[in-house]
Design goal:
CATH superfamily of the largest domain: Spore Coat Polysaccharide Biosynthesis Protein SpsA, Chain A
CATH architecture of the largest domain: Alpha-Beta Complex
CATH class of the largest domain: Alpha Beta
CATH topology of the largest domain: Spore Coat Polysaccharide Biosynthesis Protein SpsA, Chain A
Number of helices: 21
Structural class: alpha/beta
Distance between the termini: 70 Å
Largest sheet: 9 strands, mixed
Shape: globular
Oligomer: single chain
Radius of gyration: 27 Å
Length: about 600
C-alpha cells in the first residue's frame, strides 16, 4: 500500500469539515500511511477553530494545518501544501466531500497494478458522476477533476504543479493537459468513490463557477490551442452577452473580462511558445474539454443488495476482440458477476480466458461446430445462474458503472422486469485483427427513447447490451427464436416488453460498435428487410395485457412527437397499427362488460 499525503484547501468551510474528517477516520486503509494537511485561505468562520481543536489528530500518520493571511486560491493553496509535505503520492481532496471507506484502497491498487506511465488517478464522484468520456478498457481519461485526484508527487512537480495564475476553475484541466504533454497518462478509478456536495440540486448554475470556468476555457485556448481555437473562444465568449447569466450584472462581468483578455491571454501563451514541440493537441469541445456522456445529473448510489448478475457473451474465434469486452467486465464497480462465454465453433478463446482472466467468475464453453448466434445465445441463457441477465456482444463495452446502475434501478423498481440505459454508437475502423488495433471515428447517441411499446413495435431502440432483465422473464417467455437469422434481439425484447414494463434509465453506460465504412451487400440487405417484416407480422396480433392508461400514455407520447408519429405511420402498415389498437380496446371492453 502506498503512503498518501491528503491535502485539503479550506475557505469558510466549517460546514463541511466534520463530515469530511469523519469519513477519513472510517477509511479502510492503514491510518499511519495517511497524512492530512489543511491549508486554510484566511477563513473568517470557525474553520480554524475546528481544525485546531480536532481530537482525532493522533488517528493519522500526521496532521498538519497552515493558516494563510490571504486567499491564495485553489491551485496555489494546494501547491503550498505540496511544498510542506513529502509523501510519494499526493491526494488533492475538496473539503466538501466524504470519501467511501475503500476509496484509498482502490487508488492504491490502481497505482500498483496500473500502467507505469500513469501520473494521476481520479476518483469517481457521487451523487453526480462527472459525465466526461473515458476509455472503458484502459480507464484512461483526457483530463481529471481536481476535487479528488491522486498524483505522483515527482511527476506533479516535474510538470510545474498547479498554475498559480489560475485562481479557481480550470486548474485541473490545465494540469491534466500538461501531464499528457509530458507523455504521462491519467486514469479514472471508478471503484474509488467520493461523495461531493458540489451541487445543492440537479442542474444548479453557480455564478462563480459559470464566470470562472467560461473565462478559463478562453485562457486555456491561449495556452494550449491554435489561433483558430482562440478566435473560436472569442466568438463563444461574445455569445455570452446574449444569454441570461446567473448574476444581475452579467453583461458588465463579461465585458470587463473581454477587455483584459488579450493581455492576460498572452501571458498564458508563453507556455505554448516554449512547448509547441511537444505536439500536444487539446480537446476543446465548445465549453467542454471532452465528449460528454448523457446522465450528468443521474443520482448515483450503490445498490442495497448484491444479487448475482450473469453477463452473457457470444463470441466466434476472435479472442483479441473478446479480451476487451472481458476487461470492461473486470472494471465493473459491481462485484457479484458471473460471466458466461459461449463460443460458436472451436474453443479458440479458451486459453486466453484461462491465462488472463482467472480472477473473473467465468463459465466458458464452445460448441465445437458452428451453430449460429441464436443458438449460442440460448446456450448462454440456459447456462447462466444469475438473478439478472445482461447480454454483451464481444465487440461492445460496458462503462465501469453499467451493472451497478441497472441493478440499483431494478432493486428500486421491483414492478419492472427489465431496465435499459443509453449507449454510444461508435463507428469503428478496424486497422488490424492481430494485434487488435482500431480507430473510433466518433461517438453518437442513436437511441434515447423512454419506454414505449408502440415505438418498439416499429423499430428496436434497445441495443442488446443496454438491457438487464430478470431471469424470470426468460423462464416465463423463453429465449431467442431460432427461426430468425437476424433481428433476434428485437424479437426477444418485443416478447418481453409486450408482457412487462421496462425501466428507462437516463444515463449512458455502454457502447456498441458498427463498421466505420459499411458495405451493403444486396443479399444481406434483402435479408434484413425480409426479417423486419417477419418480426413485425409475428407480433401483429399480440393481445397486450396492459392498462388503458398505458394505451393513452403511448398515444400521448406520439402525439407530442409529430415527427415520430408521421414517420411511424408512413413506415408501419396502417392496417397493422389499427389492428393492434382494436385488440387493446376489445380486450378492455370485455373487462368492463364483465
Amino acid at each position: 500500500m502506498i503512503d498518501i499525503d491528503v491535502i485539503l484547501v479550506t475557505y469558510n468551510s466549517e460546514k463541511w469539515i466534520p463530515g469530511c474528517l469523519s469519513s477519513l477516520e472510517k477509511a479502510n486503509y492503514p491510518k499511519e500511511k495517511i497524512t492530512l494537511t489543511f491549508v486554510d485561505n484566511n477563513s473568517t468562520d470557525k474553520t480554524r477553530e475546528l481544525l485546531e481543536n480536532y481530537k482525532g489528530k493522533q488517528t493519522f500518520g500526521a496532521f498538519n494545518t497552515f493558516f494563510m493571511e490571504k486567499n491564495l486560491g485553489f491551485g496555489k493553496g494546494n501547491n503550498y501544501g505540496v511544498e510542506k509535505t513529502n509523501q510519494a503520492y499526493v491526494y488533492f481532496l475538496n473539503v466538501d466531500t466524504e470519501i467511501d471507506e475503500d476509496c484509498f484502497l482502490a487508488l492504491s491498487n490502481a497505482v500498483e497494478k496500473g500502467p507505469s506511465e500513469a501520473a494521476l488517478w481520479e476518483s469517481r464522484q457521487f451523487p453526480y458522476e462527472h459525465p466526461k468520456v473515458y476509455n472503458p478498457v484502459t480507464l484512461e481519461t483526457s483530463w481529471s477533476s481536481g476535487a479528488c485526484m491522486l498524483v505522483d508527487r515527482q511527476r506533479f512537480i516535474e510538470v510545474g504543479m498547479f498554475d498559480d495564475k489560475i485562481f479557481m476553475y480550470g486548474e485541473d484541466v490545465d494540469l491534466s493537459w500538461r501531464m499528457r504533454a509530458h507523455g504521462y497518462k491519467l486514469q479514472y478509478i471508478s471503484k474509488s468513490i467520493v461523495t461531493h456536495y458540489t451541487y445543492m440540486s440537479a442542474n444548479e448554475v453557480k455564478p462563480n463557477q459559470f464566470y470562472n470556468s467560461t473565462y478559463m476555457n478562453f485562457m486555456l485556448r491561449y495556452k494550449f490551442g491554435t489561433w483558430k481555437d482562440i478566435f473560436k473562444g472569442y466568438a463563444m465568449y461574445h455569445g455570452l452577452f446574449f444569454v441570461n447569466g446567473p448574476s444581475e450584472g452579467h453583461k458588465k462581468i463579461i465585458f470587463k473580462k473581454i477587455i483584459g483578455s488579450f493581455f492576460e491571454g498572452m501571458k498564458y501563451r508563453r507556455w505554448y511558445r516554449k512547448n509547441k514541440d511537444k505536439n500536444f493537441k487539446p480537446g476543446f469541445k465548445l465549453w467542454d474539454y471532452e465528449i460528454i456522456r448523457d446522465g450528468a445529473f443521474y443520482v448515483n448510489q450503490l445498490p442495497a443488495e448484491q444479487p448475482l448478475v450473469s453477463v452473457l457473451i457470444r463470441t466466434c474465434g476472435r479472442p483479441n476482440v473478446l479480451r476487451e469486452a472481458l476487461i470492461s467486465v473486470r472494471n465493473q464497480t459491481y462485484k457479484n458477476i458471473e460471466v458466461v462465454v459461449v463460443e460458436d465453433g472451436p474453443d479458440i478463446s479458451r486459453s486466453m480466458i484461462a491465462t488472463e482472466f482467472a480472477d473473473l467468475n467465468i463459465v466458458y464453453q464452445a460448441t465445437g461446430e458452428s451453430v449460429g448466434r441464436c443458438e449460442v445465445g440460448n446456450i448462454a441463457l440456459a447456462t447462466a445462474t444469475g438473478i439478472y441477465f445482461n447480454f454483451l456482444d464481444d465487440d461492445d463495452l460496458f462503462y465501469a458503472e453499467h451493472v451497478e446502475v441497472l441493478v440499483d434501478q431494478l432493486l428500486q423498481h421491483p414492478n419492472h422486469k427489465a431496465a435499459y440505459s443509453i449507449s454510444f454508437e461508435v463507428p469503428t475502423e478496424v486497422i488490424s485483427r492481430e494485434p487488435y488495433v482500431y480507430k473510433e471515428l466518433f461517438h453518437n447517441v442513436q437511441h434515447k427513447q423512454p419506454f414505449n411499446r408502440l415505438v418498439l413495435m416499429h423499430h428496436n431502440y434497445f441495443p442488446i447490451q443496454t438491457v438487464m432483465f430478470k431471469r424470470e422473464l426468460y423462464e416465463e417467455l423463453g429465449g431467442i427464436d431460432l427461426s430468425l437469422e437476424v433481428l433476434e434481439d428485437w424479437d426477444l425484447w418485443l416478447r418481453y416488453a409486450l408482457r412487462h414494463n421496462f425501466k428507462y434509465v437516463e444515463k449512458l453506460t455502454s457502447l456498441y460498435r458498427i463498421p466505420a465504412h459499411p458495405v451493403h451487400h444486396g443479399n444481406r440487405q434483402e435479408l434484413f428487410d425480409r426479417y423486419l417484416q417477419i418480426v413485425r407480422n409475428k407480433h401483429m396480433n399480440q393481445r397486450l395485457e396492459i392498462t388503458m392508461a398505458d394505451i393513452f400514455k403511448d398515444a400521448e407520447y406520439l402525439m407530442n412527437k409529430p415527427a415520430t408519429i408521421i414517420h411511424t405511420i408512413r413506415r408501419m402498415n396502417a392496417r397493422t397499427f389499427a389492428f393492434k389498437v382494436r385488440n387493446k380496446l376489445f380486450y378492455w371492453a370485455k373487462r368492463v362488460l364483465k
